[in-house]
UniProtKB/TrEMBL annotation:
It is a multi-pass membrane protein. PANTHER family: CATIONIC AMINO ACID TRANSPORTER 4 (PTHR43243:SF4), INNER MEMBRANE TRANSPORTER YGJI-RELATED (PTHR43243). It comes from Sphingomonas morindae. This is Amino acid permease. The lineage of its organism: Bacteria, Pseudomonadati, Pseudomonadota, Alphaproteobacteria, Sphingomonadales. Keywords: Membrane, Transmembrane, Transmembrane helix, Transport. It is found in: Membrane. The chain crosses the membrane at residues 30-53, 59-80, 101-129, 149-171, 183-206, 226-248, 260-286, 308-330, 357-375, 381-402, 414-435, 441-459. The keyword 4Fe-4S does not apply. Pfam families: AA_permease_2.
Length: 468
């Protein structure tokens, strides 16, 4: 017992079939899970938002955000191969720091994954509605948007969440295999974008590289601008690899597969993002697509590739659900482990004998995410996902440093190089990015965790202390 609560021992997963997940995933599935989570609406939309804040320096913003995430990815890879349990940053915090911090991290991850799933579902709904309109099928506004957007309920968003949840209920391996196919489709679309923009590439579009400076400055409208300001927003486009670590109990060979899955998906996405951002800036002056909600399609249309832009939108409709699948999968596994630890109702910590899937928690999570996507205003709460992720990444950096000092000889399938540097880059980089978030987002994040701590002391702590 520490001042921060009980320390969870490092132990193999549960032995009884009712609480044990099945090992059905290889490293190709895990790389696809990570890339599927990372490559989504972020690269499709944030290239324009980042260019508005940093100009051509948005490429540096992608590299900086990627560097911070890479440090966190190395820490995740070591901890995932050292601690053979699902739960991601929640479990690592429980083992290294204590139950109370683990609860805060788990509560923050619930926020992150719920908001991301709902936000992507609403984004997919917009792509689908536009695509359907192009085919002559008009979805009524009342059924295509939530109350905050002038509608009644966002049925396409609910439908895609239900479809993904149903796929997860069929079985983990089956959903992972389909996810791999859809991820390949997304990568092919981005490769097409790079190929089509290369003939128009001009180095003149990169001068000046940082028109708004490197560190944050205030624009005429009071908006934070600069390379670092853009990095704090672009960070949203990188996270998702942490969903791979939630598959620790379903990987066939955790020590090998998790390392390849986490580090491989992160490195692949850094390369993809930098190439795509450089192609967009090189093909068109950044002012032309800065702030656009669909910057990549806009670049293609500006270059005369109208059909390619339509195809790009079609691929988004088909392949964006991989992001929902990865985050919904990850959230159900975090809920599952927290329930198995006693912090959430025990019924959520059981798996189906037939499919090996935690059915109750998958259905419950899908219902919550669907309600958020269908009815609630996401414009203001979407940024909370960033805050929740940054909290988890800081905790993982701390856990890496603590366990290297407290338990240096325990076997690790992967050892992060220069662990002190990796840990501190993850911690300090994420703290800086948190301070770069809008003040309102920071306040809402602390309010969310105040609610979480109240629930912990009122119910979760007592439930966890009961014998199971």
């Amino acid at each position: 017992m520490s001042l921060l609560g009980r320390i969870k021992p490092i132990a193999p997963p549960a032995d009884d079939a009712a609480h044990r997940l099945r090992r059905t995933l290889g490293w190709p599935h895990l790389i696809a899970l990570g890339v599927g989570a990372i490559v989504g609406t972020g690269i499709l939309t944030l290239t324009g938002a980042g260019a508005a804040l940093a100009g051509p320096g948005v490429i540096l913003s992608f590299l900086i955000a990627g560097l911070v995430c890479a440090a966190a990815a190395l820490a995740y890879a070591e901890l995932a191969t050292m601690i053979p349990q699902s739960g991601s940053a929640y479990t690592y915090s429980y083992v290294a720091i204590g139950e109370r911090i683990a609860w805060i991290v788990g509560w923050s991850l619930i926020l992150e994954y719920s908001v991301v799933c709902s936000t992507v579902a609403v984004g997919w709904s917009g792509y689908f509605t536009g695509f359907a309109r192009g085919l002559g099928w008009e979805i009524p506004q009342a059924l295509a948007a939530g109350p905050d957007a002038g509608g009644v309920i966002n049925l396409p968003a609910v439908a895609i969440i239900a479809l993904v949840a149903g796929l997860l209920l069929i079985g983990t391996r089956e959903s992972a295999t389909l996810n791999t196919v859809l991820v390949a489709l997304k990568i092919a679309a981005l490769a097409m974008f790079v190929w089509l923009t290369l003939p128009a590439f001009s180095r003149a579009h990169f001068s000046p590289l940082m028109p708004y400076g490197f560190f944050q400055t205030l624009g005429p409208d009071g908006t934070k601008r600069g390379v670092m300001a853009a990095a704090s927003i672009i960070f949203f486009a990188f996270y998702g690899f942490d969903a791979v670590s939630t598959a620790a109990e379903e990987a066939k060979d955790p020590r090998r597969d998790l390392t390849i899955g986490i580090v491989g998906s992160m490195l692949a996405c850094v390369v993809i993002y930098v190439f795509v951002a450089a192609s967009a800036v090189g093909a068109l002056p950044f002012q032309r697509f800065a702030g656009s909600a669909e910057p990549l399609a806009l670049v293609l249309r500006s270059l005369g590739h109208d059909r390619a832009a339509v195809l790009f939108g079609a691929v988004a409709v088909v392949a964006l659900p991989t992001v929902i699948l990865a985050f919904l999968y990850g959230q159900t596994r975090i809920f599952f482990v927290m329930a198995r630890d006693g912090l959430l109702p025990a019924a959520l910590g059981r798996v189906s004998h037939r499919s090996g899937v935690p059915v109750a928690v998958t259905i419950g999570t899908a219902l919550v995410v669907a309600v958020i996507a269908a009815l609630l205003p996401l414009a203001e709460i979407a940024a909370l996902a960033n805050a929740g992720t940054l909290c988890a990444f800081v905790a993982v950096g701390v856990a890496l440093l603590v366990l290297r000092r407290r338990d240096p000889d325990r076997p690790r399938g992967f050892r992060a190089p220069a662990a002190p540097l990796v840990g501190w880059v993850a911690i300090l980089g994420c703290c800086y990015l948190f301070l770069s978030l809008p003040t309102g987002t920071q306040i809402r994040f602390f309010l969310w965790n105040a609610i979480g701590l109240a629930l912990y002391f009122l119910a979760a702590r007592r439930r966890a202390e009961q014998p199971r």
